[in-house]
Q: What sequence folds into this?
């Protein structure tokens, strides 16, 4: 099997940890000697064994001695004690002779230290092998570890004419079953899901992941004046599935409403005000401190505009249905005043285009030169 296939197998394994390792990265590993795969593993759950140690355990269960073997791992092996002991020590102890790595780890506790320790012990280290493919596993982790802020993904479904609902507000359904099923995968992947208070009042959503065996995201509401009803689905289920509400510190009736929400299990964050609403930068900083490393924003046009104006949108999932709603007053993905000049547009680049049934999904990433 060519080297590329071993690393691509490690990438495939890494993806199995989606939704369960946050705020850790997705990592996969494959151990090989003389063209034979001895063991493989991935980081399965936050706080549990890392990919390298799982691959070693798998190989040893099969009775293999790993002396003289090569390990392909998607991310630089750690060299510090965290929830688990350093993976570099395990590789050294097992007599592995070569480590082939895809992505560098930007975590200051790891960055370069894993490579250095392995080389000091006489182990050959090859870096940046299929780097682009390995990097694509962890945009959320890389962003979070560098900035301390959640990676923000906008998600919206629209018609050919750019409408997310009819002028009456009816939106069931813009897209078909395959597109809606894909959204559930995103809810499983991202640690948090965010909406605005308008969505809560209009739809009373649950914001759960409807995949068998999937993980529910932390439900997050931008609710400047703390209007979330105590009878809402979010509040009623807050004791089972976490809910975080961000409001301004001087919201009307704050003390009493906050106390009742917290009794129901909701975490209420008091935040600065900006233009009459919760400050999005302050909200994201607070959520980063709560270890929310990535957020899927499903909040409608008003919240989308606030996210864009804050310069916080890192990517966007745009689902386009082959239908037209029409209507000058029908809602669009980004509401508010909008920009005055075309030259000031928020710029994104296309990363992926795929068909989901009759619908099209386009994934965009923010251009570094954008506003």
A:
């Amino acid at each position: 099997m060519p080297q590329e296939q071993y690393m691509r197998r490690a990438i495939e394994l890494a993806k199995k940890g989606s939704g369960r390792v946050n705020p850790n990265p997705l990592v996969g590993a494959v151990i090989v000697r003389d063209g034979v795969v001895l063991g493989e593993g991935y980081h399965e759950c936050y706080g549990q064994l890392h990919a390298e140690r799982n691959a070693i355990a798998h190989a040893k269960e099969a009775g293999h001695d790993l002396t003289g073997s090569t390990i392909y791992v998607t991310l630089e092996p750690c060299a510090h004690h965290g929830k688990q002991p350093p993976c570099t020590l395990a590789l050294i102890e097992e007599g592995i002779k070569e480590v082939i790595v895809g992505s560098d780890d930007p975590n200051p506790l790891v960055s370069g230290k894993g490579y250095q320790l392995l080389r000091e012990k006489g182990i050959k280290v090859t870096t940046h092998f299929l780097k682009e493919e390995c990097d694509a596993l962890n945009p959320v982790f890389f962003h979070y570890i560098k900035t301390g802020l959640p990676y923000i993904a906008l998600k919206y479904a629209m018609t050919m004419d750019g409408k997310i609902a009819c002028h009456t507000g009816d939106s069931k359904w813009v897209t078909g079953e395959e597109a809606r099923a894909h959204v559930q995968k995103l809810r499983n992947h991202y640690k948090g899901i965010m909406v605005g208070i308008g969505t809560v009042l209009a739809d009373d959503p649950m914001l759960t992941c409807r995949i068998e065996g999937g993980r529910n995201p932390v439900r997050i509401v931008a609710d400047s004046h703390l209007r979330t009803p105590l009878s809402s689905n979010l509040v009623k289920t807050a004791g089972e599935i976490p809910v975080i509400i961000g409001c301004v510190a001087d919201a009307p009736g704050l003390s009493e409403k906050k106390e009742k929400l917290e009794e129901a299990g909701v975490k209420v964050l008091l935040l600065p005000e900006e233009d009459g609403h919760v400050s999005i930068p302050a909200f994201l900083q607070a959520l980063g401190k709560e270890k929310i490393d990535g957020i899927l924003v499903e909040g409608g046009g008003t919240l989308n505009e606030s996210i864009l104006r804050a310069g916080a949108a890192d990517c966007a999932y745009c689902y386009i249905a082959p239908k037209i709603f029409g209507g000058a007053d029908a809602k669009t993905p980004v509401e508010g005043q909008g920009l005055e000049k075309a030259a000031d547009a928020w710029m994104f680049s296309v990363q992926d285009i795929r068909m989901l049934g009759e619908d099209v999904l386009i994934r965009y990433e923010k251009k570094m030169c954008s506003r």
